[in-house]
Structure formats: C-alpha cells, structure tokens
Design brief:
Keywords: Cytoplasm. Belongs to the phosphatase 2A regulatory subunit B56 family. The model is unreliable at about 5-70 and about 160-170 (pLDDT under 50). With about 500 residues, the chain is mainly α. The chain has helices spanning about 1-30, 65-70, 85-100, 110-130, 140-150, 160-165, 180-195, 205, 210-220, 225-245, 250-265, 270-285, 290-300, 315-330, 335-340, 350-365, 370-385, 390-400, 405-410, 415-430, 435-450, 455-490, and strands spanning about 45, 50. α17 packs parallel to α20 (about 415-430) and α20 (about 415-430) crosses α22.
Length: about 500
Amino acid sequence: MKQIFGRRKASKSADKELIGGRRHAVSNQQSGSGVADQSGQQPILSSTGHACGSGNRMGFQESRINDGLFSSHFRPLPSIKDMPNAEKQNLLIVKLNMCCTQFDFTDPTRNMREKKIKGETMMDILDYVKTANTKFPEIVVEGITKMISENLFRTLVIPPREKKVLQAFDLEEDEPLMDPAWPHLHIVYELLLNFVQSPETDAKLAKRYVDHSFILRLLELFDSEDLRERDYLKTVLHRIYGKFMVYRPFIRKAINNVFYQFIYETEKHNGIAELLEILGSIINGFALPLKEEHKLFLVRTLIPLHKPRCISMYHRQLSYCITQFVEKDEKLADTIIRGIIKCWPVTNSPKEVLFLGELEEILEATQPSEFQKCMVPIFSQVARCFNSSHFQVAERALFLWNNDRVYNLISQNSKVILPIILPALEKNINGHWNLAVRSLSLNVQKLFSEREAELFAECMLTYEEDKVREEARKLKQEAAWKRLDEIASDKVTSGEAVLISPTLPRQPSV
C-alpha cells in the first residue's frame, strides 16, 4: 500500500512541476524575458518540430495547449525592430506562437484587450516580413505558415441558399455578408501575401509547409461570403501559382475539381468568379500550340460552366476565358460555339442576353474560315432569338449587325445566312409586339435589300413561295381534321367503330 500511495504522490508532484514549468515559460515569453536565453543562443528546430533553447521548449505545436494561458495573460511585447539582431528571431517566434491563439469575434465585447494586443503583434510581424533583407530560416517559415494556418483555416459559416438558387439572378442584389473577424483576418492575409511574394522566401524551403494540403484548404476558403476575403485569396493563390512552379498542374487540377462539384452537384459556390479570374491570366500565358490537357479543360469544364442558372455571377470572367482560347487557337471557335449553343437556355431570358453578348465577343475573334463551319447553327439560333417575346433578347440579337467585324462576316456569307434569318425578320416586321424590335428588324432587312438586291429579291420570292405552301398545308390539314370530325359525328349515335378511309391524307404533326 505504501508503494502504491508513494507512486501517486510522485506522479502528482511531477504534474505540478510540468504545469509550473509551462506557466514559467509562457510568462517569460510574454514579459519579454524569454526572448533570448541566457546563453545568447537562438532556438533551433528539433526533429519533433519544436524550437529548442537552453532548456525551455517553446514549440509551435504547444501553442494550442497554452491557449487559455495566452488569453488570460496577454502582454504587449517589444517591437521586433527595436531588438538586437541576435534576439529578433527569438522574439519573432514568441510572437508567432502567441498569435496562434483564437478569439471569438462575433462578440465584440469579449477579450477586447487581448484582441488589440494580438492585432498589434501581427502588424509587427507583418512589418518584419516586409522589411526583411535576409533569407527566412526554416524555423521562421514554419512559424509563419503555422500561425497563418491557425488563423485562416476554419469552417466557413454559410447561410442556407436553397431558395436563392431558384432565383439565381437576384443574388447580385443581396447585401454581401461581412465577416466580423475581418479587421483581424485581413492582417493575416497581408502577411501571407507579403510572405509568398517576398524575395527572402526560398520556394524550395517554403514548399515543405506551403504544401498540397495548404493549397487545398486555401481553395476551400473561396466559398467565403465575404468579397474582401475572396479578393485576397485570388491574389494570394495567383502569387503561389507564380512562385511555386512545381504546383501549377496541381492547382489547375484542384480548381477543376471545384468546378466539377459546382456544375454537377451543388450549383452553389461563392468563389467561381474569382477562380475564373485566376484562370484567365493563366490561360493568357499558355504556350502554343496548346496542350491536349488545356483543350480538355475547355471542353469538359469551361463550356459546361454555361449550364448553371447562376451564371450571371461569373459570366464576365467565363467569357474572358473562352475568348482567350479562341485567340490562342482559332480552330477551337467551332467547338466552343457549338458547345454554347448546346447549352442555350430555353426559358431564361436574362441568360439568353448574356449568351448573345458572349457570342458576339467570340465572333469578333473568329477567323472567316472557322466562321463558315458554324454559321448555320449560329444564325439558326439567332433567328429564334429574333422572334423571342422578350424584347431584350430580340434587341440583343439584332444588335449583332452594329458590330463591324460581325457584319463583315455576315456580308461575306450572306447567301447562306439571309435565307435562314429572313423568315424571322418578316415575322417580326409583321407581328412583333415591341415597336423597337420591329424597327430594328426593318433596318436589318433594309441592309440586305440595299447591299445585295438580287439575292434579297430571290430570297423574298422563295420566302413567299414557302409561305403559300405552308398556308396550303394548313388548309389541307384543317380540312382533314374537319372530315374526321364529321365521320365521328355520324357514327357516334350508332355505336359503330369509327374507321378512317385509307385515302384520307395523313399530315405530320407540327
């Protein structure tokens, strides 16, 4: 029994010594006395990832254990620039460790003093990174990335958006959500941005900590409701793409996966526009000839991005990426245009207006030889837009003739295009409810009649003949239905089965 009680007393005394030692180390770090040990040696990184001095451990991995102590004993530390060069690194590590502490920013009245001290401490670290003139050692790189990860990588609180998806075009009118922690987060983003683009950051060393997991967690933050955070993420990810060349294929693939999930699963994501903006500059730098990987990305990702209802949130950036591909490789114009026509909306008029604007931009970059391959499906769709009951769709389609580049392409191929669009123009002139659409249709028709009178007269003659044939077909069909009705009426009283004469002409359904 004495041996058992003796062991318990020994274990309790050891625990007290360990806790007391930790408190002593923390108080030393916060008072500034623990910035450098008495031997004057700088801490070194041990194999376990901790910084080791002269007996006191102040590792990054222990920062979470000391959160309670940090929050209750926060003390301002001296500025790094005021310290001797030999002690600057030690103080930086202490401050980085200190800034790993988390606070609740949803309640502005809690931990006001500690939040202020933490903000000032992070500003001092940011100033150190901006003004550094020597390469960052590994312990500093580890400390900075650790602190950034602790503060940025969190579970995003996203309000339910099921109803918003049904009204996708009202999303732009919603007030953006502002993160209450932003005054604190924007300092962390500034630190990350300056750290990545600093010439003192060695890419080979930094990639041990800015790894695949780090990049994936950055991409998760693009779904943040706060526009300011997404703008910082856009800049940071672009700088990482430029500095860490080895990660470029991985980043493109990871962004691709975000798009796949958005297109085929959720149709909910706040950062599609920012990710497309990054890709726009990446596509602009693609070497020629384009790799097969990039062409597959166009066909499997960019073109299907036209399907979601909320395309208005990112259409400008998507249109830029698509146009970049046409400018890089003119042979892709036919594939792109046919893909967009395949995704063309049927009942979504605002989306149709966006598509017509994008189509105009693509046609501006399309060469005549490629235009001829796809002009029939293009103007078959444009003719349907002419007759849209939504006047903005009809007007936007007719405005194509105001673009000199597009007008020249049409003029060079008017023998094919005019017969396609002339019936739609005539239908507008004779019966569209909107006066502006009628006037624009008349102007387009006048352009053809004045520029190519013979072709226009020939097409009009063909149109009139087709119109007469169509009217005769309708009359014949009406007569057939009338005869069938009469036969049914004669037989209905006798109870006999109604037989249709084999000589009765059968008309195809319209």
